[in-house]
Amino acid sequence: MTERDAYIQKMEAEQREATARFQELEAQSDLAESEDELDLITGAKERSDDFQREVQALRHADQQDWHRVKTAAEKARMRFHDHLDRAGLQWDQLRAGYRREREAELRNLGAQMDQWEAARQRTAAEDSLLTRQEFDFMKRDLLNTRSLLQHLGHARGAAWKQAREEYEAAWRDLRERSRRIRADSPTDTASPY
């Protein structure tokens, strides 16, 4: 193998390696958010094509043009590698930004879940503050109100009007007593507001 053939093989191998790097960046182009970032991919593609043309020109160059074509291929290789290095750095920064956004979103969702859990625990704690007597009273009133509602469903004529008034009074009383019991709980009275 001549020195020329070895050099051409070396350049072809470098061109394949650089093209693989470019394809990796191009596969991530959905991360691009601006025209500048898309231009970076377009510029890399143009430089890839330039490099590929120069490597092909090396294969077909005669002895007189060899040094000129070799110099042009080297320049194209360097421009392509430089562009890939810049694009790689920019893509690393984009990925890091997306990673930070995802982490912040996950922290936010975690905080929402923690807030919901704390509210559930607070409600359970408030419920446990009800005395046994208050709990029995609420249960008895609830059963009484349900019974009045069932009676209302079967009442007819003048009895319906009387049953409706009894049900509405029991329901108002149940809601009012429940509100007062909750308002009297230590968690509410301890609040300075």
Question: Topology of this structure?
Answer:
Layout: H1 3-27, H2 35-60, H3 66-129, H4 132-154, H5 158-183, H6 186-189
Domains, number: 1
As a percent range, the share of strand residues is under 5%
User: How many whole angstroms does the radius of gyration measure?
Assistant: 39 Å
| Cα shape | rod-shaped
Distance between the termini: 91 Å
Q: Strand count, sense and closure of the main sheet?
A: none
Helix percentage: over 70%
Q: pLDDT average, as an integer?
A: 79
Counting DSSP H or I runs of 4 or more residues, the number of helices is 6
Structural class: mainly alpha
Order of helices and strands: HHHHHH
Coiled coil: 8-35, 99-126
Keywords: Coiled coil
Summary of the model, kept short:
The chain has 193 residues and is mainly alpha-helical.
Please give a structural write-up.
With 193 residues, the protein is mainly alpha-helical. The chain has one domain. The chain has helices at 3-27, 35-60, 66-129, 132-154, 158-183, 186-189. The longest helix has 64 residues, at 66-129. It is rod-shaped and about 115 Å long. The relative contact order is 0.07. Residues 187-193 have low confidence and may be disordered.
Give a quick set of tags describing it:
about 190 residues, mainly alpha, rod-shaped, coiled coil, disordered C terminus
